[in-house]
Amino acid sequence: MKGTITKRGRASWRLKFDLPPGPDGRRRTQYLTVRGSKKDAQGKLAEQLAAVNKGTFVEPTKLTVADHVRSRIDAWHADGKKKISDYTAGRYRDMLRLYIAPHIGSTPIQRLSIADVETWHRTLLTSGLGAGTVRNVHTVLTRALRDAVRHGIIARSVAGRDGETAPSYAPEEMKIIRTDELDGVLAKLRGHRICAEAMLALFCGLRAGEVLALRWDAVNLDEKMLHVRATVLAINGQAPMTKPPKTKAGRRSLTVPDVVIDVLRGHRRRQLEMRVALGLGRPEADALLFPDTAGGLRRPSTLSHDWRDADVADVRFHDLRHSHVSMLIDAGLDPVTIAKRIGHKNAKVTLSTYAHLYQRDDGRAAAAINAALGANPVPKSG
Question: Are 299 and 291 contacting, i.e. CB atoms less than 8 angstroms apart?
Answer without folding.
Answer: no
